[in-house]
Design a protein that fits this description.
5-stranded mixed beta sheet
């Protein structure tokens, strides 16, 4: 009887474990910031650039004569929303040929596997984030953190390096490695015209990858912990140096909050895409973000010295 009871208890534990695995995605989604999943009507930013993301999780469609380039797959539950936006603009979902990303966290790459499966797009990822994408975040330096959920892994077709270009149908994007937030965090730049402006007026567009950090980011080693990864502080410094020198007319980013998306959308009906011309806002964002980093770095150095 003791053996039977033990076997029943073991089966019960397995059943509980199965339920945990089954429901954990729903638990995760239930705690997601609503602005990450609330859609906005898709809109045009430049001649060949469109916004197809949510209120805060930005996704961009670059349209070319040879097909589309999608920047950011967002959450695992985001592909259907992105697809609706792409098709609402009059473009075909299956015409997406290339998938790019801003960073390898789940809020920007969680939906990648589904998008690749549906469109057969080539997945291009910056070095530093490749293993994270291919492992579904399991090799992320913050993998043990509840703030870095896993997602379905996807094969990387092309490994990008700092300064590489991605070209399709005559449109060129430049990948800038702005690491720190993730090891392969990527800021994208391109040049395009804003509808209504003279044909020769070409604007510099910057899509910032990410510069944030939180308490689990360790820039300085202490007796209690190592640095998050070797060279993380140097990577952040390089990122801000790189962002400072990028020419920027149109300020965009991986999150709408970076560039005041919702505030600018209120003015979009009157100003149109020109509302995103914001070189001053870009400079202020970079300066403020760097000041936050430098302040935290100084604090961690001081704490480590005691």
């Amino acid at each position: 009887m003791k053996v039977i009871s033990y076997m029943k208890f073991t089966r019960f534990l397995f059943f509980c474990f199965f339920l945990f695995l089954f429901f954990i995605p729903f638990i995760t989604f239930a705690t997601v910031d609503p602005s990450w999943t609330t859609p906005v009507a898709p809109f045009q930013i430049a001649d060949n650039l469109y916004y197809v993301g949510s209120q805060d999780l930005a996704s961009y469609l670059v349209v070319t004569p040879k097909g589309g380039i999608l920047i950011n797959a967002n959450l695992a539950i985001s592909p259907s929303q992105i697809r609706i936006s792409v098709e609402k603009l009059g473009f075909r979902w299956k015409d997406i040929k290339i998938l790019l990303n801003s960073q390898a966290h789940d809020d920007h790459m969680g939906g990648a596997a589904e998008i690749i499966r549906e469109t057969h797009a080539k997945n291009m990822v910056m070095d530093g984030d490749v293993s994270v994408v291919e492992s579904g975040a399991r090799t992320d330096f913050l993998w043990t953190s509840p703030n870095v959920p896993g997602y379905a892994p996807s094969h990387v077709d092309r490994v990008l390096h700092d300064g590489d270009t991605v070209s399709l149908g005559g449109v060129v994007l430049i990948a800038h490695k702005t690491a720190g937030h993730t090891r392969g965090c990527t800021t994208w730049t391109m040049r395009s015209r804003i509808p209504g402006e003279p044909a020769k007026t070409i604007r510099n567009i910057v899509i910032v990858g990410g510069v944030s950090f939180w308490s689990e980011y360790h820039f300085v080693p202490t007796a209690a912990h190592r640095v998050s990864y070797p060279g993380i502080a140097q990577d952040f410094k390089h990122t801000f140096a790189e962002l400072r020198i990028l020419p920027c007319d149109i300020f965009l980013g991986a999150h709408g909050g970076y560039f005041g998306l919702l505030e600018k959308l209120r003015l979009y009906p009157q100003k149109g895409p020109r509302v995103f011309i914001d070189p001053k806002g870009y400079r202020q964002f970079v300066v403020s973000s760097q000041e936050s980093f430098e302040k935290e770095l100084s604090k961690q150095r001081a704490d480590a010295a005691h």
